[in-house]
Protein backbone atom coordinates (compact mmCIF):
# COMPACT_ATOMS: atom_id res chain seq x y z
CA UNK A 1 0.00 0.00 0.00
CA UNK A 2 1.20 3.52 -0.78
CA UNK A 3 1.45 5.92 2.14
CA UNK A 4 -0.83 8.92 1.53
CA UNK A 5 0.49 12.39 2.36
CA UNK A 6 -1.23 15.75 2.54
CA UNK A 7 -0.38 18.41 -0.02
CA UNK A 8 1.96 19.86 2.60
CA UNK A 9 3.76 16.52 2.80
CA UNK A 10 2.50 15.36 6.19
CA UNK A 11 1.21 11.86 6.88
CA UNK A 12 -2.46 11.61 5.81
CA UNK A 13 -3.91 9.10 8.25
CA UNK A 14 -7.50 9.71 7.16
CA UNK A 15 -6.50 9.05 3.56
CA UNK A 16 -4.63 5.91 4.61
CA UNK A 17 -7.73 4.62 6.35
CA UNK A 18 -9.94 5.29 3.33
CA UNK A 19 -7.47 3.69 0.94
CA UNK A 20 -7.07 0.63 3.17
CA UNK A 21 -10.84 0.24 3.34
CA UNK A 22 -11.08 0.39 -0.45
CA UNK A 23 -8.33 -2.19 -0.94
CA UNK A 24 -9.97 -4.64 1.45
CA UNK A 25 -13.40 -4.10 -0.11
CA UNK A 26 -11.89 -4.74 -3.56
CA UNK A 27 -10.44 -8.11 -2.61
CA UNK A 28 -7.08 -7.64 -0.88
CA UNK A 29 -6.82 -10.23 1.89
CA UNK A 30 -3.81 -8.54 3.52
CA UNK A 31 -2.07 -5.17 3.53
CA UNK A 32 1.64 -4.39 3.57
CA UNK A 33 2.42 -1.00 5.11
CA UNK A 34 5.71 0.93 4.89
CA UNK A 35 7.21 -1.19 2.14
CA UNK A 36 9.12 0.25 -0.80
CA UNK A 37 5.88 1.47 -2.38
CA UNK A 38 4.95 2.96 1.00
CA UNK A 39 8.02 5.22 0.89
CA UNK A 40 9.57 3.67 4.00
CA UNK A 41 12.97 5.32 3.40
CA UNK A 42 11.41 8.78 3.89
CA UNK A 43 8.91 8.13 6.69
CA UNK A 44 9.94 8.45 10.31
CA UNK A 45 9.80 5.67 12.87
CA UNK A 46 6.91 7.45 14.58
CA UNK A 47 5.01 7.78 11.29
CA UNK A 48 5.41 4.07 10.60
CA UNK A 49 3.84 3.19 13.94
CA UNK A 50 1.07 5.77 13.49
CA UNK A 51 0.25 4.27 10.10
CA UNK A 52 -0.15 0.77 11.54
CA UNK A 53 -2.42 2.02 14.31
CA UNK A 54 -4.59 4.05 11.93
CA UNK A 55 -5.03 1.26 9.39
CA UNK A 56 -5.73 -1.26 12.13
CA UNK A 57 -8.50 1.01 13.39
CA UNK A 58 -9.94 1.21 9.88
CA UNK A 59 -9.89 -2.47 8.90
CA UNK A 60 -10.10 -4.14 12.32
CA UNK A 61 -9.31 -7.81 12.22
CA UNK A 62 -10.64 -8.39 8.70
CA UNK A 63 -7.17 -8.73 7.18
CA UNK A 64 -3.63 -9.12 8.51
CA UNK A 65 -1.30 -6.12 8.47
CA UNK A 66 2.35 -6.63 7.61
CA UNK A 67 4.66 -3.77 8.53
CA UNK A 68 7.83 -3.05 6.59
CA UNK A 69 10.63 -2.68 9.13
CA UNK A 70 13.78 -3.44 7.13
CA UNK A 71 16.72 -1.04 7.31
CA UNK A 72 20.46 -1.21 6.73
CA UNK A 73 21.00 -1.45 10.52
CA UNK A 74 20.13 -4.61 12.47
CA UNK A 75 19.53 -2.75 15.75
CA UNK A 76 17.27 -0.20 14.07
CA UNK A 77 15.33 -2.98 12.34
CA UNK A 78 14.81 -4.74 15.68
CA UNK A 79 13.50 -1.50 17.19
CA UNK A 80 11.07 -1.05 14.29
CA UNK A 81 9.87 -4.65 14.58
CA UNK A 82 9.13 -4.17 18.28
CA UNK A 83 7.33 -0.89 17.56
CA UNK A 84 5.25 -2.53 14.83
CA UNK A 85 4.26 -5.32 17.19
CA UNK A 86 3.21 -2.78 19.82
CA UNK A 87 1.24 -0.79 17.22
CA UNK A 88 -0.80 -3.84 16.23
CA UNK A 89 0.89 -5.36 13.18
CA UNK A 90 0.40 -9.06 12.49
CA UNK A 91 3.77 -9.59 10.83
CA UNK A 92 6.86 -7.79 9.59
CA UNK A 93 8.47 -7.49 6.15
CA UNK A 94 12.26 -7.42 6.43
CA UNK A 95 14.39 -6.47 3.44
CA UNK A 96 18.05 -7.43 3.16
CA UNK A 97 20.35 -4.74 4.59
CA UNK A 98 21.26 -2.49 1.71
CA UNK A 99 24.45 -0.69 0.75
CA UNK A 100 26.74 -2.60 3.16
CA UNK A 101 26.17 -5.83 1.18
CA UNK A 102 26.71 -8.33 4.02
CA UNK A 103 27.88 -11.86 3.09
CA UNK A 104 25.46 -14.73 3.51
CA UNK A 105 26.46 -15.69 7.07
CA UNK A 106 25.99 -12.09 8.23
CA UNK A 107 22.72 -11.85 6.34
CA UNK A 108 21.45 -14.99 8.01
CA UNK A 109 22.46 -13.69 11.45
CA UNK A 110 20.65 -10.40 10.72
CA UNK A 111 17.35 -12.12 9.92
CA UNK A 112 17.61 -14.49 12.88
CA UNK A 113 18.19 -11.63 15.30
CA UNK A 114 15.09 -9.83 14.06
CA UNK A 115 12.99 -12.99 14.14
CA UNK A 116 14.13 -13.64 17.72
CA UNK A 117 13.35 -10.11 18.88
CA UNK A 118 9.55 -10.09 18.65
CA UNK A 119 6.68 -12.52 18.56
CA UNK A 120 5.66 -11.56 15.03
CA UNK A 121 6.07 -13.79 11.97
CA UNK A 122 8.66 -12.57 9.47
CA UNK A 123 8.40 -12.21 5.70
CA UNK A 124 11.84 -12.00 4.10
CA UNK A 125 12.12 -9.52 1.24
CA UNK A 126 14.54 -10.64 -1.47
CA UNK A 127 15.14 -7.81 -3.94
CA UNK A 128 18.82 -7.79 -4.88
CA UNK A 129 18.30 -5.22 -7.63
CA UNK A 130 17.70 -2.62 -4.91
CA UNK A 131 19.75 -3.94 -1.99
CA UNK A 132 22.78 -5.27 -3.82
CA UNK A 133 22.56 -8.56 -1.91
CA UNK A 134 20.73 -11.73 -2.81
CA UNK A 135 19.28 -14.02 -0.14
CA UNK A 136 20.71 -17.14 -1.72
CA UNK A 137 18.43 -20.19 -1.92
CA UNK A 138 20.58 -22.19 0.53
CA UNK A 139 20.41 -19.31 3.01
CA UNK A 140 16.65 -19.16 2.57
CA UNK A 141 16.38 -22.89 3.20
CA UNK A 142 18.34 -22.60 6.45
CA UNK A 143 16.29 -19.62 7.60
CA UNK A 144 13.07 -21.55 6.95
CA UNK A 145 13.90 -23.67 10.01
CA UNK A 146 13.27 -20.65 12.26
CA UNK A 147 9.72 -20.92 13.64
CA UNK A 148 8.91 -17.24 12.98
CA UNK A 149 10.43 -16.94 9.49
CA UNK A 150 7.41 -18.01 7.48
CA UNK A 151 7.23 -16.15 4.16
CA UNK A 152 9.16 -14.53 1.32
CA UNK A 153 8.42 -11.57 -0.91
CA UNK A 154 10.26 -12.65 -4.04
CA UNK A 155 11.78 -10.05 -6.36
CA UNK A 156 14.91 -12.05 -7.19
CA UNK A 157 13.95 -12.93 -10.80
CA UNK A 158 15.31 -16.45 -10.29
CA UNK A 159 12.59 -18.95 -11.09
CA UNK A 160 14.91 -21.91 -10.62
CA UNK A 161 16.08 -20.71 -7.20
CA UNK A 162 12.51 -19.99 -6.12
CA UNK A 163 11.36 -23.47 -7.08
CA UNK A 164 14.31 -24.96 -5.23
CA UNK A 165 13.23 -23.24 -2.01
CA UNK A 166 9.56 -24.08 -2.58
CA UNK A 167 10.45 -27.75 -2.98
CA UNK A 168 12.50 -27.92 0.21
CA UNK A 169 10.66 -25.66 2.65
CA UNK A 170 7.17 -24.66 3.75
CA UNK A 171 7.83 -20.96 3.25
CA UNK A 172 4.87 -19.05 1.85
CA UNK A 173 6.13 -17.34 -1.30
CA UNK A 174 4.62 -14.10 -2.60
CA UNK A 175 5.46 -12.65 -6.00
CA UNK A 176 6.85 -9.18 -5.45
CA UNK A 177 6.90 -8.32 -9.17
CA UNK A 178 3.49 -7.91 -10.77
CA UNK A 179 4.50 -9.51 -14.05
CA UNK A 180 5.20 -12.74 -12.14
CA UNK A 181 1.89 -13.05 -10.26
CA UNK A 182 0.58 -15.99 -12.24
CA UNK A 183 3.92 -17.61 -13.06
CA UNK A 184 4.98 -17.98 -9.43
CA UNK A 185 1.50 -18.98 -8.29
CA UNK A 186 1.47 -21.77 -10.85
CA UNK A 187 4.63 -23.30 -9.37
CA UNK A 188 3.47 -23.15 -5.77
CA UNK A 189 3.54 -19.57 -4.51
CA UNK A 190 0.88 -18.39 -2.08
CA UNK A 191 0.01 -15.05 -3.62
CA UNK A 192 1.56 -11.69 -4.37
CA UNK A 193 2.53 -8.37 -2.78
CA UNK A 194 1.63 -5.82 -5.42
CA UNK A 195 2.28 -2.20 -6.29
CA UNK A 196 -0.14 -2.25 -9.22
CA UNK A 197 -2.76 -3.64 -6.82
CA UNK A 198 -3.08 -0.16 -5.33
CA UNK A 199 -4.84 0.78 -8.56
CA UNK A 200 -6.62 -2.39 -9.73
CA UNK A 201 -6.92 -4.68 -6.70
CA UNK A 202 -10.03 -6.54 -7.87
CA UNK A 203 -8.68 -7.18 -11.34
CA UNK A 204 -5.38 -8.62 -10.12
CA UNK A 205 -7.17 -10.77 -7.56
CA UNK A 206 -9.22 -12.19 -10.42
CA UNK A 207 -6.08 -13.68 -12.00
CA UNK A 208 -5.56 -16.03 -9.08
CA UNK A 209 -9.29 -16.62 -8.59
CA UNK A 210 -9.50 -17.83 -12.20
CA UNK A 211 -6.51 -20.11 -11.67
CA UNK A 212 -8.02 -21.54 -8.46
CA UNK A 213 -11.26 -22.22 -10.32
CA UNK A 214 -9.37 -24.29 -12.90
CA UNK A 215 -9.62 -21.68 -15.65
CA UNK A 216 -5.90 -21.48 -16.36
CA UNK A 217 -6.44 -20.02 -19.82
CA UNK A 218 -8.62 -17.27 -18.40
CA UNK A 219 -6.04 -16.55 -15.72
CA UNK A 220 -3.31 -16.28 -18.34
CA UNK A 221 -5.42 -13.95 -20.45
CA UNK A 222 -6.04 -11.62 -17.49
CA UNK A 223 -2.33 -11.58 -16.67
CA UNK A 224 -1.55 -10.73 -20.29
CA UNK A 225 -4.14 -7.97 -20.36
CA UNK A 226 -2.57 -6.43 -17.26
CA UNK A 227 0.88 -6.28 -18.80
CA UNK A 228 0.60 -2.86 -20.45
CA UNK A 229 -0.36 -1.24 -17.15
CA UNK A 230 2.23 -3.26 -15.23
CA UNK A 231 4.98 -2.26 -17.64
CA UNK A 232 4.13 1.43 -17.53
CA UNK A 233 3.85 1.44 -13.75
CA UNK A 234 6.89 -0.69 -12.98
CA UNK A 235 9.32 -0.60 -15.92
CA UNK A 236 9.00 2.81 -17.53
CA UNK A 237 11.89 4.43 -15.68
CA UNK A 238 9.71 5.77 -12.87
CA UNK A 239 9.47 4.11 -9.44
CA UNK A 240 6.23 2.28 -8.73
CA UNK A 241 5.48 4.68 -5.88
CA UNK A 242 5.50 7.58 -8.33
CA UNK A 243 3.27 5.91 -10.89
CA UNK A 244 0.85 4.53 -8.29
CA UNK A 245 0.40 7.91 -6.64
CA UNK A 246 -0.02 9.62 -10.01
CA UNK A 247 -2.88 7.29 -10.93
CA UNK A 248 -4.52 7.38 -7.50
CA UNK A 249 -4.50 11.18 -7.54
CA UNK A 250 -5.96 11.16 -11.05
CA UNK A 251 -8.73 8.83 -9.83
CA UNK A 252 -9.46 11.12 -6.83
CA UNK A 253 -8.29 8.46 -4.41
CA UNK A 254 -6.03 9.14 -1.40
CA UNK A 255 -2.36 9.52 -2.33
CA UNK A 256 -0.96 13.04 -2.34
CA UNK A 257 2.61 13.89 -3.28
CA UNK A 258 5.71 11.72 -3.11
CA UNK A 259 8.48 12.76 -0.77
CA UNK A 260 11.89 13.88 -2.05
CA UNK A 261 14.15 12.66 -3.49
CA UNK A 262 11.26 11.29 -5.60
CA UNK A 263 9.50 13.66 -7.97
CA UNK A 264 5.93 13.43 -9.32
CA UNK A 265 5.17 11.94 -12.70
CA UNK A 266 5.03 14.39 -15.59
CA UNK A 267 2.00 15.02 -17.77
CA UNK A 268 3.10 12.74 -20.60
CA UNK A 269 3.73 9.84 -18.22
CA UNK A 270 0.40 10.40 -16.49
CA UNK A 271 -1.49 10.45 -19.77
CA UNK A 272 0.09 7.12 -20.73
CA UNK A 273 -0.74 5.61 -17.37
CA UNK A 274 -4.36 6.73 -17.54
CA UNK A 275 -4.77 5.31 -21.01
CA UNK A 276 -3.34 1.94 -19.97
CA UNK A 277 -5.52 1.90 -16.86
CA UNK A 278 -8.69 2.65 -18.81
CA UNK A 279 -7.92 -0.02 -21.41
CA UNK A 280 -7.21 -2.65 -18.78
CA UNK A 281 -10.29 -1.87 -16.72
CA UNK A 282 -12.41 -1.87 -19.85
CA UNK A 283 -11.08 -5.27 -20.93
CA UNK A 284 -11.63 -6.66 -17.44
CA UNK A 285 -15.23 -5.45 -17.06
CA UNK A 286 -17.89 -8.16 -16.51
CA UNK A 287 -19.71 -7.01 -19.65
CA UNK A 288 -16.66 -8.06 -21.66
CA UNK A 289 -15.75 -11.41 -20.13
CA UNK A 290 -12.38 -13.04 -20.75
From TrEMBL:
Swiss-Prot/TrEMBL keywords: Amino-acid biosynthesis, Cytoplasm, Diaminopimelate biosynthesis, Lyase, Lysine biosynthesis, Schiff base
Catalyzed reactions: L-aspartate 4-semialdehyde + pyruvate = (2S,4S)-4-hydroxy-2,3,4,5-tetrahydrodipicolinate + H2O + H(+)
Catalytic residues (UniProt): 125, 153
Keyword Glycosyltransferase: no
Enzyme nomenclature, EC number: 4.3.3.7
Pathway: Amino-acid biosynthesis; L-lysine biosynthesis via DAP pathway; (S)-tetrahydrodipicolinate from L-aspartate: step 3/4
UniProt xrefs under CDD domains: DHDPS (cd00950)
Chief location: cytoplasm
MF terms in GO: 4-hydroxy-tetrahydrodipicolinate synthase activity
GO biological process, one term: lysine biosynthetic process via diaminopimelate
Classification via SUPFAM superfamilies: Aldolase
Keyword Amino-acid biosynthesis part of the UniProt annotation: yes
Site (Part of a proton relay during catalysis): 36, 99
Residues that, per the record, bind pyruvate: 37, 193
Entry GO CC: cytosol
PROSITE patterns in UniProt: DHDPS_1, DHDPS_2
InterPro entries: Aldolase_TIM, DapA, DapA-like, Schiff_base-form_aldolases_AS, Schiff_base-form_aldolases_CS
Family recorded in the similarity comment: Belongs to the DapA family.
Subunit structure: Homotetramer; dimer of dimers.
Function, in words: Catalyzes the condensation of (S)-aspartate-beta-semialdehyde [(S)-ASA] and pyruvate to 4-hydroxy-tetrahydrodipicolinate (HTPA).
Stated name of the protein: 4-hydroxy-tetrahydrodipicolinate synthase
Gene, per the UniProt record: dapA1
